[in-house]
Specification:
single chain; 5 helices; 11 strands; about 30% helix; Heat Shock Protein 90
């Protein structure tokens, strides 16, 4: 067994390696909130300033975040409604215009939902909510989870998590594989650690809830999974599985799950092919893993 001093020294070295891998963690980034409430649409979205890449990179990142949030609202609109809004709102380039575009879309979406309710085209009120959680905000690295909750008919609310991670030196949206050396076999290690958590969760469910859940199937990591990194050097991997019991699968973009809802199914009389609906069969799972376990594989 290693002596206590030796263990402490090793842990200190691991922390240094992780810090070197993310030098941005040394300086803070300014993150502010833009929130617009209009009736049953309540949208909060973060925007940044002070990245190491300057205002141009700030705008690039803010545009990516706001565009995603806007796209979630547009999913409850018909194609014709979306085209009508976009015909009077050109794609914004500067931050103030981006925020005004977002606020106008919130009000427009609420009006269209209210119109459907008033006209009796829905049997239960639709709504849209967006919140966010900043995991890391440093001047060269920004990690945020955008959390959208909608109800557009059926028996369940739909929650979608989108994790976005930006290299603020050039503003590009990072993929999971970029955290590790090109030749590193990080996927096998992640799959093993996630497998431990899967089996542990299944064991607890059997013991505490008395449910006979099947043994979880192993995941396959591709390097394009939905992920985040927090200030404590924890890596979060967001996966989904089919509620019917199919094996968990990686999510390269959004992760969706559902909540039980007392509302009845919606029959709104609109063209359903024009309204993009999230699947109600996905169950989201989040796996938190310490980057200390990858100090030998992290890209320096």
């Amino acid at each position: 067994m290693l002596p206590a001093k030796r263990i402490t020294a090793l842990l200190s070295m691991v922390a240094i390696f992780v810090f070197m891998a993310f030098p941005a963690f040394a300086a803070e980034l300014s993150v502010k909130e833009n929130r617009t409430r209009s009736g049953i649409v309540n949208v909060a979205v973060p925007y940044i300033s002070g990245s190491t890449g300057g205002k141009q990179i700030d705008n690039m990142v803010n545009r990516a975040v706001l565009s995603y949030v806007n796209s979630q609202m547009k999913q409850v609109l018909s194609r014709q409604e979306t085209e009508a809004f976009e015909s009077t709102h050109p794609e914004p380039r500067e931050l103030n215009d981006m925020l005004h575009y977002n606020a106008d879309l919130v009000k427009y979406t609420d009006k269209k939902i209210v119109d459907k309710n008033t006209e009796g085209r829905v049997t239960a009120s639709w709504y849209v909510q967006n919140e966010y959680e900043v995991k890391t905000a440093k001047d060269t690295f920004y990690s945020v989870i955008l959390k959208t909750k909608t109800y557009t008919g059926g028996s369940a609310n739909v929650i979608v998590w989108k994790a976005m991670n930006f290299d603020l030196k050039d503003g590009h949206l990072m993929e999971l594989k970029e955290l590790f050396d090109a030749e590193a076999d990080y996927a096998a290690r992640l799959q093993t650690l996630i497998g431990y958590q899967q089996k542990g969760r299944a064991r607890l469910i059997r013991h505490i809830k008395g449910k006979n859940v099947p043994e979880p199937a192993p995941v396959s990591i591709t390097g394009q999974e939905n992920f985040y990194v927090d200030n404590h050097y924890n890596l979060g991997i967001i996966l989904y599985s089919e509620t019917s019991g199919a094996k968990p699968a990686p999510v390269g973009g959004d992760s969706a799950k559902t909540e039980e809802s007392p509302e009845t199914n919606v029959t709104d009389g609109s063209n359903q092919s024009d309204v993009n609906r999230q699947s109600e069969t996905r169950q989201m799972e989040v796996f938190d893993i310490s980057l200390n376990d990858f100090a030998d594989l992290i890209r320096l």
